[in-house]
Amino acid sequence: MPVLTIGQHLAVEPLLNAVPDHWEVLRFKAVFERLEERNVDQVYPMASLKTTGAVVLRSTLGERQEPDEKNLPKYFVAHSGELVVNPMWLVGGAIGVSEIDGAVSPDYRVFRTRGHLLPKYAHYLLRSRPYRDQYVLYTRAQTTFDRRVQQDDLDNMPLLVPPLGEQQAIADYLDRETAQIDTLITEQQRLVEMLRERRISVIRSAISGVDSGGSIGGTEDWFGSLPKGWTAAPIRRHFNVILGKMLNANKDDAEGIEAPYLAAGSIQPDILLLDAPKTMKFTPSELEHYSLRAGDVVVVEGGAGYGRSHYLRHDLPGWGFQNHVARLRSSNGLVDGLFATYCLKACLASGHIEANNRTATIPSLSRDVLGAIRIPVPPTSEQRQIAKHLDEQTARIDTLIAESERLVELSQERRASLITAAVTGQIDAWQES
User: Type I restriction modification DNA specificity domain spans which residues (predicted)?
Assistant: First the structure.
């Protein structure tokens, strides 16, 4: 069996020089045979390759675009135990050994091991961090057409080939260890989801006055009934609502000066991203018109994050904002901006904003729709008390969320490091079994 001569510019090269002496290093094409069985009779169900490396039936993925029926016979058949590769998204992890029989896209590639590698070991090896880095080196760019990994590069990629018995021990060890880590990750992700739900529940209860005698439900408004002494009003009654400046509107204006602007993507669910801002030209009068001051509320007008909102606790001198962002500025001082922001967050979570945009081709929250959203209006002093209470409560919840998310991140790093160590012989799987 020929041994590979190690080439240059390989992310896996340091590992190849450090593998156990009794392991072999073979080229991909010596280990895998490419298959091109077509689903001519359409016997096999449609399947997709996820970035997790799992091959799953398309019927389990919910709504998604179906292929043209005339192309169905061109789909490749992938049997259980065979390697499936999406060459256009290898950099994203689209490679894995299938555990089902199914028909996959004709843009994919299907391989069968020639007997040198066990399928489960191959799955761990080819999804390990060094090989993920290797796929990146094989791509020309990250665009759809330039990130494809060419077959020649894949064929010549060096693979670590331990004895079959050792491969089985490595696979069994990783099955056991990664299952424990995956359980911990799942539990923490579930906890994060519960904490986020708790966060919204706390906000909804407070802004609806549940603790003051109100109750959610019972009226046509999204927030339900309200305590005695509270009123409700559309946002435009208490705030001036304007959209930001159209990008590049005065691109050639000699009087304009380059200034940073708040973009829709800067407004995240619980944070405002201000690092490395983009700029465009504003005239002095425009900078005044599109100014951002403490007490303002900024809301995403269009795109995937429409409806997200943030309360400005500090001035942003010299900043403007783009047309996909709406600014709410108090017109009469009767509604606190922070309280209004919490109302908008609860409104978004309730589905009310989405319900008012179902007919739109591109999801958006127009100035008119935003201004028409009704919010509870308690006495001003009570608004501030509620906002202060919610700052304290959400801060505690956010701390717990951050801790859980950090544990997930550390667990994922631990999982990746463990797999790399095992498939490169840094862990003695026989001893660990």
Answer: 228-398
Angle at 184 between CA 179 and CA 187, to 5 degrees: 120
User: Domain check: are 358 and 238 in the same one?
Assistant: yes
**β-bridge mates for residue 240, sequence order:** 329
Across the chain, mean pLDDT equals: 88
Return contacts of 415-421, CB within 8 angstroms, 24+ apart: 415/178, 415/181, 415/182, 415/185, 416/128, 416/129, 417/129, 418/174, 418/177, 418/178, 418/181, 419/124, 419/127, 419/128, 419/129, 419/174, 419/178, 420/128, 420/129, 420/130
156 and 237 assigned to the same domain = no
pLDDT class for 6, splitting at 50, 70, 90?
very low
Q: What is the pLDDT of residues 110-121, one digit of tens each?
A: 999 999 999 999
pTM: 0.82
CATH of the domain at 32: 3.90.220.20
Same domain, 235 and 155: no
pLDDT at res. 65: 58
Final residue in a domain of this structure, among 333, 356, 377: 377
Would you say residue 351 lies in a domain? yes
pLDDT at 272 over 50: yes
Q: Where are the beta strands (DSSP E) in 225-357?
A: 231-234, 239-243, 257-262, 279-282, 297-300, 309-311, 320-321, 325-330
248 plus 371 within the same structural domain: yes
What pLDDT was estimated at residue 3? 41
Decide: 292 and 316 in contact? Cβ < 8 Å.
yes
Q: Among residues 105, 136, 161, which one ends one of the domains? A: 161
Residue 58, in any domain of the structure: yes
Q: Give the range of the structural domain holding residue 276, as residue numbers without chain letter.
A: 231-377
**Structural domains of the chain, count:** 2
The sign of the dihedral angle between the CA atoms of 330, 332, 337, 341 is negative
Q: List, in sequence order, the alpha helices (H) in 364-379.
A: 367-372
Looking at residue 246, what DSSP letter applies?
A: P
What tokens were used for 181? 């880590």
